[in-house]
Amino acid sequence: MKNWFARWFGGATRADAGTPAVPHVPAAAAQAAPAAHAQPSFDLELAFHAWLSGPVAHAGETRDALILDELAKLARQPDSAAELVPRVPAVVPQLLRSLREEGTSSTELARQVAQDVTLVAEVIREVNSPYYRPAAPVRTIEGAVMLLGQNGLRMLLARVAFRPVISAQTGRLARQAAPQLWRQSEKCALATSLAAPGCGADPFEACLAGLMQNVGLVVALRLIDQVDGAGRMPQSDAFAHAMRGSARVLSARIAQEWELPPPVGAAILQAGEADTTPLARALRVGDRLATLRVLAEAGVEEAQEAVGQLPDHERRIFDKLGES
Fold first, then answer.
1. Res. 19: pLDDT tops 50
2. What phi, psi does 255 have (nearest 5°)?
3. How remote is the C-alpha of 285 from its chain's centroid?
């Protein structure tokens, strides 16, 4: 799986120039709580952890320490961590290669999309969603590609690629949490791409960062299922913050292993810091708004109250997330 993103995107992009690879992070740093930054008055990270956990949970310091130690080991072995998530449909890399080539016609793109019936259904569903608001229902692949355009098609294909990575899981906890995690990931990708221009970041790299950042959480959930056969999520505040920090490092390591554009992994690693890159700032905004959206939709009262405190430019992005 290591090189499939390299085949998609080829060489360095504009945003890659001069950007260092994801730096080494000691195991202790992987378990550190994220740096403070603007958040709602309640702890959004803890609320999200509880939402993912569902009714099956447990407390136990020994088990918690074992899980965190194993996550730290995986962060030092990203190739092993990458093996815990599925591969992508074979047609997607082919399509993304075509999108990089100048002169590729909409007819040729439509022909390639038509090779995968699942992809056809996703493209048609997407272009008929409230987000695009077509004047009349789009029923053909050719019409869908024309409406989406190349950038829209790239973002759609990225979502299609990541959906099985995040949502197709085994194990009690991973299976239970997968639908919630995918909802947050999809909304995070959209929110981050919408926030990107205002932060000076590339919207497509922002989309990738929003989709990629939860991959480490998927690995963490699968690890918990392996350690605890009943799929019980530890519930202490300390564990919740430490797992999120470890998962962020894992996501960044796997992004590097998959050879995504270097700014993507770096942004995931830096998103919890106060002074960061434009892409990391966009990701921080996108993640916060996406998490608020899914928690508010789930009826979490504190999240619903926090929505009313959003500044106007963030409220516009938040409202867009209800259409996706």
1. no
2. -60, -40
3. 13
